Amino acid sequence: MENKLRIGIIGLGTVGCGVVKVLSKMDDVEIICAAVKNTAKKREVELNCITDNPFDIANNPNIDVVVEVAGGCAMLDVLKAAIQNKKHIVTANKELLARHGAELFDLAREHNRVILYEAAVAGGIPIILPIKTSLSANKFNSVAGILNGTTNYILTKMDEENLSYEDCLLKAQQLGFAETDPTGDVEGFDAMYKIAILANIVFGKRIDVNKIYKEGITKISALDIRYANELGYKIKLIAQAKKVDNDALDIRVHPMLVSKERPISEIKNATNAVLLNGFPVDKVMFVGPGAGEFPTASSVVGDILCIKSEIEKCGEILPMTTCHHSEYANQIDIEDTKNCYYLCIKAKNEPGEIGKIGFECGRHAINISCIIQKEAMDDGSATVIVITGECLEKDINTMISNLESDGITKVVNKIRVM
Amino acid sequence: MENKLRIGIIGLGTVGCGVVKVLSKMDDVEIICAAVKNTAKKREVELNCITDNPFDIANNPNIDVVVEVAGGCAMLDVLKAAIQNKKHIVTANKELLARHGAELFDLAREHNRVILYEAAVAGGIPIILPIKTSLSANKFNSVAGILNGTTNYILTKMDEENLSYEDCLLKAQQLGFAETDPTGDVEGFDAMYKIAILANIVFGKRIDVNKIYKEGITKISALDIRYANELGYKIKLIAQAKKVDNDALDIRVHPMLVSKERPISEIKNATNAVLLNGFPVDKVMFVGPGAGEFPTASSVVGDILCIKSEIEKCGEILPMTTCHHSEYANQIDIEDTKNCYYLCIKAKNEPGEIGKIGFECGRHAINISCIIQKEAMDDGSATVIVITGECLEKDINTMISNLESDGITKVVNKIRVM
User: Which residue of A411, B128, B365, B376 has the fewest CB atoms within a 10 Å radius of its CB?
Assistant: First the structure.
């Protein structure tokens, strides 16, 4: 088509400005208008039309595609209106999709529109479309990865510079890798939304984000990282979804000890990585920038160009598979998952303590693959590090409470092993 | 559409059988017939129709898509006939595409058919479609990678088990990682075809495969690998294409020293990796199985399913961008490329030798970033390892011939540094 694809943008933050900059170099795509919270605010980019009412975008008859990069769930009704007004949607909004995706995809299907969201997971890394296209012959057993750049940056710095979590968070905030309120990243919400989206595509089921087990990195200490290193592991915030018995799904986000033998343990700073395991492809890994103005814009504009080429070549009906799934996944509880564990135990520094730990593990049929007594403290306590064999989460928890029942022994940290 | 997509397969080797096995699980794709060299040969898969005349496939009116997994260039005319008979093509044939791609893509364009070839580069790794879709907003500066599993397996074993090239080749052949005649892999032909295909997509120009500089791994010694390790490098067969001044392209395949700091140095055995560097995405890496029955089938069947969904949703006109490029790339000669070099020099074990090397480098304005004298030999010679700063290939070559002009000093190996 000779006529340009007409874009409306909701949100002109870092990503929004990146998208405008990239699109401004293209003569076949035109930005009609942008909606922002505060129209008076000075921005890096100049646009002819700026509004503070996002419905101006959703209702504008001269807009073909609405790009939503505002974040949060406030724009749900706006996007619904846009779809009802026959606009295609490109969004980088992981929370909105994880919480209200099904609703939006159903509506899009009803109105024969597409919602593309390559940027919503792993920033600039192409992962959503490859799963839907090149890898569509596969049945997947698992998808896992490092999906949050902020926490990976913090954990990398803690590891490389042997600093505390607090110091590294501050550093990340100063460098703009972490927000003033870092909760969404460090408590694992961001990674949780992303793994919900990936699980939805990979397993073709609706995912209840509220049933995803989530643990952040705030309890990881420099000591844990040092001990992990001594044992041949790095500590990473891993988001994963895997198939277990009778097609149930085990979906969760929490820190894990990752063997240095695994390439993913080498993923540093704000870089993201996504691992897929399926048949017939076996294992593939995608690595790249998980966030940032331009990498994210790469995915957003990539989606826009996909829509453009589809419209040009197919007219209005788009082949890109929307994620319409009626059935909900059967998500198992963390208590019923099997894991190996790293335990950092503060015990009385006296004979028999290690025996007691061994005895409690034995009582719950938990194998110990490694146990090390660390330096004794002045308060007469000693740190003992245990790596267990695979066992049920509920069993390790009972074992821990029994171990702590003496009122002296304390399991300072429990971290799962990948 | 309710009616099945009808497939004709040319070639029932490892990949062909993998494709049949994967397709046999799908009820919306039907294999009509397969063409093979020897119809009598016993195979893992059973098909109702087998012919030894590939034109039976190209001319069969009941076939929608021709899957070519025969390899080599013998099937060029067959594929042309198939396209003229309005069939879409899915191929894993890197040599055919690298040598005759332009011709085939032009013909496909003329007849409004597509040629998909995800499996032709990096086996099961989705790379071609992602470049054309999710990453289509990017201008790329370079594409590079480990594109040949056989050579990477051999180099990994040489490194891990400190074995000679010959021993590892034999091992690879016994395990089926290398063919009886390993030339295509170990001399770099396979990687050359693949980088030609990638460069074509990434830079949008026709590539003359005969102008690609190519060096295999046969001259790499266990000693080179040991010295590289001591200096913090791994040796990998790297295929790369990068933009240089005034849009000229530097495309080549040869062994390189890769710093252990780079994730790609960790890619082991038959695994492949592709690195892309562009704007706005910055750096992304794709890792996975570069060959094998099922990983390759994953890409072939993925392409088949893409064609299916396109036909269902767009009718016959397919949106997937074919690689129609009229203009040839300006490919620079290896003599005009700039590199850092590892030199393994056999010199007389006497005072002044290192001085002489330093002098010759200085004369050609070649910086030395590292020089180490290794153990002396009984024949009165000593090995000196040099890592140079960046300089022109033609300058290092003149320097080397000057160095060797004394008839005693010998540069045993010259390996470029990534």
Answer: B365
CB A332 within 8 A of CB A244: yes
Q: If 0-12 CB within 10 Å is exposed, 13-18 middle and 19+ buried, where does residue A61 land?
A: exposed
Query: Phi and psi of B96, rounded to 5°?
Result: -60, -45
CATH number assigned to the domain covering B128-289: 3.30.360.10
Backbone angles phi, psi at B3, to 5 degrees: -70, 145
Three-state secondary-structure class, residue A235: strand
Decide: pTM greater than 0.90.
Answer: yes
Tokens, residue B402: 């000057």
Distance CA A333, CA B273 (A): 36
Our CA angle for A246, A251, A256, nearest 5°, is: 125
In angstroms, the Cα distances linking A416 to A215, A396, B224 are 11, 11, 41
Residues of A noted as catalytic: 194
The yes/no answer on whether domain B335-417 falls in CATH 3.30.470.30 is no
Q: Which residue of B has its CA nearest to A137?
A: B302
| Strand B233-243 with B139-146, pairing | antiparallel
Interface contact flag, B306 A125, Cβ < 8 Å: no
- B391 φ, ψ (degrees, to nearest 5): -155, 170
**B5-123+293-321 classified as CATH 3.30.1330.40:** no
**Per-residue burial over B212-222, b = 16 or more CB atoms within 10 Å of its CB, e = otherwise:** bbbbbbbebeb
Per-residue pLDDT of chain B (418 residues; tens, 9 = 90+): 457 999 999 999 999 999 999 999 999 999 999 999 999 999 999 999 999 999 999 999 999 999 999 988 999 999 999 999 999 999 999 999 999 999 999 999 899 899 999 999 999 999 999 999 999 999 999 999 999 999 999 999 999 999 999 999 999 999 888 889 999 999 999 999 999 999 999 999 999 999 999 999 999 999 999 999 999 999 999 999 999 988 899 999 999 999 998 889 989 999 999 999 999 999 999 999 998 999 999 999 999 999 998 888 766 655 455 556 778 999 999 999 999 999 999 988 887 788 888 888 999 999 999 898 887 777 888 899 999 999 999 999 999 999 998 888 899 999 999 9
Torsion sign across C-alpha atoms B338, B340, B346, B348? positive
Q: Which residues of B are catalytic?
A: 194
Rg (CA), chain B: 24
Q: Peptide bond before A280: cis, by omega within 30 degrees of 0?
A: yes
Asked if A97 contacts A118 with a C-beta cutoff of 8 angstroms, the reply is no
Cβ contacts of B258 on chain A, cutoff 8 Å? none
ipTM: 0.92
Domain ranges of chain A: 5-123+293-321, 128-289, 335-417
Q: Is the dihedral of CA A135, B77, B17, B192 positive or negative?
A: negative
* Closest residue in chain B to residue A284, using alpha carbons only: B288
- The encoded tokens of residue A399 equal 């074992």
Residue A266, min C-alpha distance to chain B (Å): 7
pLDDT in tens, B117-159: 999 999 999 999 999 999 999 999 999 999 999 999 999 999 9
